[in-house]
Amino acid sequence: MEKLIISTKDQYQLSAHIFKPEKSNEKIILINSATGVKQQVYFSFAQFFAEQGFTVITYDYRGIGLSKPEKMRNFKASMRTWGSKDFKRLTEFVIENFPNYQKFCLGHSVGALIIGMNENSKVFEKFIFVATQNAFIGNLKWKTKLEAFFGFGFAQPFFTELFGYFPAHWFGLGESLPKNCAYDWRTLILNRKSTGKLLLKTNDYSKELNQKVLVLYAEDDVWLTDKGVKSLLNDVYPNLKPNYRFLQTSESEKGEIGHVNFFRSYNKKLWNIILNEIKI
After folding, report:
1. How do strand 177-178 and strand 165-166 relate by DSSP bridges?
2. What is the Cα–Cα distance from 1 to 3, expressed in whole angstroms?
């Protein structure tokens, strides 16, 4: 594992790590993280694929983890910035440094939503979507729907305005988020267009993508519904060719997959689902 600092076009320094195999199969995976999830969560997964011959890159979006500024208050970043600047720059890095490799992109949660904000997404041969959907409140389960209504309707904007950033860790929602990232998340939940609404505020390349995509979602993910997952593929990425794989908790050694735990080492055997999809 090697640490990288990659500068974006607007001169922001992003922290990334590259996992290189002993013997390369000339395939590379770029991992787009979930909202507020630090890249370290994906290290075991990345190392597993490096052992199979893949080169893997993880990184933190601006405002998250090792790419966090000294002061979060009113730090300028948004989910649209993550897609149109951060993800775009990492994709350029892959193109520049691995021009002849087969390229794959794994998008976890919001990491799949921002793929449509980057014109260079067309270079990826195949996508892997994990735990992602159109997160509009109308697509959610009833308990989650109530929590989302009060949380994103009232608590989130209150604390975001109070602190100038959203202390998401107080609510068990990962890393603290820059102010406009929090508001973009609120849009995903409360606006009927969800991801489509964010894409209206930035360059939208979602309809130009026509690759195959493996879509993984878990039985015990309280945030996801079949309706929400299918809405994302039908409405936002209608030209992608999805292969849906529903993950049952009985397939996990600990009986836990949820929204993030797919990437825990105790779910290592589930990683073979992705390996079998892209190793050929």
Report:
1. antiparallel
2. 7
The angle at the Cα of 37, spanning 36 to 43, to the nearest 5 degrees, equals: 160
Q: And the tokens for 135? A: 């997160």
Q: Which two tokens stand for residue 233?
A: 């593929």
In angstroms, the CA 265 to CA 238 distance is 33
DSSP 33: P
Q: What is the mean pLDDT of residues 215-228?
A: 97
> For residues 110 and 77, what is the distance between their CA atoms, to the nearest angstrom?
15
Per-residue pLDDT tens for 82-119? 999 999 999 999 999 999 999 999 999 999 999 999 99
Contact 201, 189 (CB under 8 A): no
Taking CA 33 as the corner, what is the angle to CA 27 and CA 34, rounded to the nearest 5 degrees?
145
Q: Is the pLDDT of residue 280 over 80?
A: no
Query: 179-190 and 156-163 are packed helices; what angle lies between their axes, rounded to 10 degrees?
Result: 170
The structure's pTM equals: 0.98
Q: Which residue shows structure tokens 């309706």?
A: 227
Please tell me the predicted confidence (pLDDT) of residue 279. Answer: 85
